[in-house]
């Protein structure tokens, strides 16, 4: 069908996207009208011409088509940042599968509610001495209004607008005149609502040779117009942040702005201080604690050119900078860069698209790059830079693996291996600090053997099975099911069960073992607010406790120079995630945890406790060998067609009744299977084997569609809503987009009629 209708908003705001106006696109403009394009439209009863923004082009309209007005003309160019954001939203809708409204609401700022305090103020801009002279002159010339104002400002350099206009009765004209002469400044508090209130102290470092070379090389390629994404692979403490600062300075010199993405959890006062310390009030911060109004203010300040640098979590991408030059993504492997609500976008990919639209460049940094990023660096799509040394002189810690199976054999049933107990005792004696890390992320009901480390896995997908009520073990990819086991299939031991230990139990155990030890605990329970989180960290940093026990939140980006011991209590927890990325997550967590030890002058030690000491993720993490890990992991991804070797589209169905969720998923799976069949047919009718011999007899994997599922979701039921998933794999993401669109078209018409089963898309392609 011809896409001859356009949905148009007149103001760019969150609220307006709910009710766009429909217009018909005249034949002559069909090729030009796209999301983000500015158009002139006849508006309202009088049909006055107004400027609107196209947000969507479609083939259907809820309005009688003959009553629609026509777009008058297209305004060329895409000079406004909000136009680029609308284009980005259209891309996100297409890539990630959401409605255009959801996508627009993600990228456009929410409009501040009316009635909030936009406090206007009058400030003295001239020096007091000058103001005094002006006052005397005004009095001589009998400019009484001007004199009244200057007198008041000399008493109090900032006055409320109401006081000036109502009490002092100064006209707007007089004020504007004085502003033009630079005597006063008219401000509104909206402009000054800046979450950054203090600027840290920053001593500029002389970059090391390696740091300088990276910064120069990136800026040089920027100037040459080689906008390939850069990936800086450097261990924690190797000086990546200093390189970011240098790059930002380079952008500012070129009249450009920069966005710095930092995982929310690492967005602490300490981190922000380094940026504000260097760039002062040209820096602003966006985080989840800001109100919608405050966020909007940040966007306005950005648009007006009042700031050059925006720091924040993934949503900071959508700050409308007029001249965006660079997007830096620190800790690019972090899972928090992926949105959990529709559109389920990934900040890395979205940043690349935004950069493409803006003529900007993306720079990624990590100590443990994602497989996606590193494989792109390998193929030359990204430029790879490496930092190998810690600049503060700290040595890499010595890592030891404690085999928990052996501990059990020796009769030790405590959560702590003998080696870890011994080392904790030493630290307490020497008054050094320790961190104990319980990797809770993986706790999802997996079943493993305490004697031999065997984990119950799906025979088809190589991910852990999860224990469901009723004694079933279920695979969340393909739906494979089996009875739970009471005897280990591998060694016959009866110690095969779900792993259950929380941070609280660990705290108790430490208190029993070491009655005098001062323990701090950090987990979801003790850190409900951002303040409590920072409080625990600063208390530990000040040496108010000997041992910090916590979940993965303790391993992120904090420097505790007095910590000389890090214990990982059960590395297996994340290994047994029922997710193909379990190995990668484990390697990342262990590497990060190990990086916490020995940041100061004294060398550090790390003890990794595990039931699977031979697992490659654990071995490579202990050896701090990223390359080695990458080689092994990428092989496995290729073998099983997991990303980045292939893309996966997850389609999830939700319904109050289990049958409906399941039926929805089955229908989608069927659709995808038919698509796969058609695809195979087009290649000559053979059933696809996944392997293809080309004419030069080289074997390659063809872009086949593989459909897995349906299967109940990891957490099959939340709030009485049942969830089912279907996974579709393909080497070509475009094919997955076609399948997504097909499922969407099929579902939307039905859903309108029934309204029973909801669904969403979750592309985990992360190319
Ligand atoms: P990363 O971001 O890779 O973890 P940072 O940039 O935070 O590393 O640097 C780690 C530590 O080294 C910081 O304390 C920083 O001040 C210091 N540092 C970084 N670069 C230099 C340098 N060129 N000279 C001296 N100290 C540096
Ligand atoms: Zn399976
Ligand atoms: Zn066993």
Task: Give your account of this protein's structure.
The chain is 35% helix and 22% strand. One zinc ion binds next to loops.
Instruction: Write down the Rg.
Output: 30 Å
Distance between the termini: 31 Å
**How many extended strands?**
32
The number of helical elements comes to: 23
Point out poorly predicted stretches.
685-703
Categorize the overall geometry: globular
Order of adjacent strands in the largest pleated sheet = 11-12-10-13-14-9-15
Which ligands occur here?
adenosine-5'-diphosphate, zinc ion
Structural class estimated from helices and strands: alpha/beta
Strand content: 15-25%
**Taking all residues together, what is the mean pLDDT?**
83
The major sheet is characterized as: 7 strands, parallel
The helix fraction, in percent, is: 25-40%
Main attributes?
globular; single chain; 35% helix; 23 helices; binds zinc ion; six-stranded parallel β-sheet; binds adenosine-5'-diphosphate; alpha/beta
TL;DR of this structure?
The protein is an alpha/beta fold and 767 residues long. The model is unreliable at 685-703 (pLDDT under 50).
